[in-house]
Every structure is written in structure tokens, then in C-alpha cells.
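STRUCTURE:
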């Protein structure tokens, strides 16, 4: 990128097929926003407005070796596949980070469960207890954050031939290593946002979803029982809260029923409290699910819809005093719930790109 930035000012980089997310120091962000228009031969656009979160899922490749102890230089040599002397040089150059601090002492002791990184080689985690082998040395395994097309070789044997389950897993303990070759990562991403009240995008996004919640019911009312059967007034509340966060969802949930009632007299004033309650429950549940799980699967959307409908039915019963009417609204609205699950999944994962 030719921005003359120190490597320490750039943190994790998450890569998707069409976008990437970088974590950088505050003073570096303006430089990237102004100067970066091309990476290699690829033109790019950089924005700092959208709090996009990419979820990265990685598989691990096991790499086996032996070390005499959990000294930093021994572990670093195994991790980097370098000699002990070169590993000592890396440590003295300050390239080993252990427990969020730079270590420059080769004899520093590491422990099971610790995370460390070596600049230029990746991040590692010690995940299992050591086992003594006949020569008295301690066996370790390293895991790389990418899949390998071939098997590792140890003592003239393929790793899959070593003691273990036959799938590249050995009885020896191992470390896990995150991969620095991002193109080889196996990623599963969905672009979910969490907009705040201080952002203008929150309000115009909510405005668009409120407009959708106004127009869609008018189309459904062209058919008998279209409103209570297809539940159109909730659809864009679900999409907005899941895609852009609970704040957008809450604004949409509060404004949609009252605006529809004021403009068209539907829903009637008598049922506005119950509909408003269900809308707020939906916004909260959808925003929570999106923030907690960072994906939009059919199962999660079904759970969100089921929660707001069941809790809303109980709330409607408490507000109206009629259990029969509350349950009847639930029963008639089942097609609308299915529409919210399937249509919501389609909107969130396929139709809305920003």
C-alpha cells in the first residue's frame, strides 16, 4: 500500500472473498481512509463508518515435533521450523509476543493454555498437556490455520500413519496456529452491523424500513385477512434489527404501528399496544441474536420469531384479558411467521448487500 506505516499500528485483518476488515490504531485510520485506493493491482474503497464484523472459521493442520522443555526459544524453534539459534535471534529482535507482552529472553518459560505470536510466522496456542517420550524429550504438535493438501512427515512416516485416529490427529499434545495466509482461510461470513444513535445512517436506515412496514401491509390488505395472516407490519422490523442492530430495529418497531394507524386507521387503536409490544420484543430478540451469534441462519430466525410471538401472545393476553383472542391471533399468523423466517433470511443474506 506504500503508506509507510509501522507494522505495530495494524492489528488483526479479517478477509472475505469481496471485502476485508482491519483493526488499526486511531491515528492510522485517517491515513488509510485518504491514501488507500489500490492494493496490488486491485482497486479498493476504504470506509470507517460501518462497524462490519466478519466471522472467520478455520481448520487446523497438525505439525509434529519434539522439544526439551517449554522454554521460549525451544517452542519458537518448533513453531517456526527454524534452528534453535535462529529462534533465539527472533526472540532477541522482539518478535515474540507472549501474554500480550514482548519477550526478549530466550529462557522464558511458557505454560499450557498460553497464547503467543511470532511476528511474520503467526499466532499459536498451547492446548494440551505434555507427554514424555522414551528419549525423555517432550512432544508437541503445532496446528496451522489452514488445510493442507498433503500429510506431514515425521521420522520417515506420514503423520496419518502415526499413533492417532488416522485423520492427522495424534495422541501427542499440540499447539494451534492461526494462519497468516488469508487466501487459504475457510471463511463463513455475513455482514451484520450494529449502528449507534450517533450515526446518521441509523436514522435513514430506520426510515427506509419504516417505509417498508407501511407499504407492505397495504399490499397484504388487498387480500382477505391479509394483515393478521401475513403479519407484514413486523417483517422489516425483523430485517432491520438483525441486519443493522437493535437500535435500528427499535426505531422501526416503535414508528411503524403508530404511523400505519395514523395514516390508514389500521391497525386499530385498540390493538396498537399489543402490536407495539410484539414489535419491540422482535427488535430486541433479533438484535440480540445477531450480536450474539454473528450469523443469520434459518434456525436462529425461527427462534427469534418464535420468541417474540410466544412472549407477545402472553403480553396480548395480559393487555386484553382474552386468552382466546391472543391464541387465535397466533394461530392465524402462522403463515406470516413462516414468511418472516424465509423472507428474512433471504433479505439478510442475499438481497441487502450494504
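SEQUENCE:
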Amino acid at each position: 500500500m506504500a503508506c509507510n506505516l509501522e507494522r505495530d499500528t495494524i492489528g488483526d485483518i479479517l478477509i472475505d472473498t469481496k471485502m476485508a476488515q482491519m483493526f488499526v490504531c486511531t491515528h492510522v485510520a485517517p491515513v488509510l481512509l485518504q491514501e488507500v485506493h489500490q492494493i496490488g493491482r486491485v482497486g479498493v474503497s476504504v470506509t470507517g463508518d460501518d462497524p462490519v464484523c466478519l466471522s472467520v472459521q478455520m481448520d487446523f493442520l497438525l505439525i509434529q515435533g519434539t522439544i526439551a522443555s517449554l522454554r521460549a526459544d525451544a517452542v519458537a524453534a518448533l513453531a517456526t521450523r527454524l534452528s534453535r539459534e535462529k529462534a533465539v535471534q527472533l526472540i532477541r529482535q522482539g518478535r515474540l509476543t507472549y501474554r500480550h507482552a514482548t519477550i526478549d529472553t530466550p529462557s522464558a518459560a511458557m505454560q499450557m493454555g498460553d497464547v503467543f505470536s511470532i511476528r511474520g510466522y503467526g499466532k499459536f496456542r498451547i492446548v494440551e498437556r505434555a507427554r514424555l517420550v522414551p528419549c525423555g524429550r517432550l512432544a508437541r504438535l503445532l496446528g496451522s490455520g489452514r488445510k493442507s493438501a498433503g500429510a506431514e512427515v515425521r521420522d520417515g512416516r506420514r503423520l496419518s500413519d502415526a499413533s492417532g485416529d488416522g485423520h492427522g490427529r495424534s495422541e501427542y499434545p499440540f499447539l494451534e496456529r492461526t494462519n497468516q495466509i488469508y487466501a487459504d482461510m475457510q471463511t463463513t461470513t455475513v455482514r451484520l452491523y450494529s449502528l449507534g444513535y450517533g450515526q446518521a445512517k441509523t436514522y435513514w436506515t430506520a426510515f427506509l424500513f419504516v417505509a417498508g412496514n407501511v407499504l407492505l401491509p397495504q399490499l397484504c390488505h388487498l387480500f382477505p385477512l391479509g394483515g393478521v395472516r401475513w403479519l407484514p407490519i413486523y417483517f422489516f422490523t425483523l430485517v432491520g434489527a438483525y441486519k443493522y442492530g437493535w437500535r435500528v430495529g427499535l426505531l422501526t418497531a416503535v414508528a411503524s404501528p403508530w404511523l400505519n394507524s395514523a395514516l390508514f386507521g389500521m391497525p386499530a387503536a385498540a390493538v396498537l399496544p399489543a402490536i407495539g409490544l410484539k414489535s419491540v420484543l422482535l427488535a430486541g430478540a433479533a438484535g440480540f441474536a445477531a450480536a450474539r451469534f454473528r450469523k443469520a441462519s434459518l434456525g436462529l430466525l425461527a427462534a427469534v420469531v418464535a420468541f417474540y410471538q410466544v412472549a407477545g401472545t402472553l403480553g396480548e393476553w395480559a393487555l386484553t384479558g382474552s386468552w382466546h383472542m391472543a391464541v387465535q391471533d397466533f394461530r392465524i399468523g402462522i403463515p406470516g411467521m413462516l414468511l418472516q423466517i424465509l423472507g428474512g433470511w433471504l433479505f439478510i443474506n442475499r438481497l441487502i448487500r450494504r
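REMARK: The longest strand covers residues 61-67.
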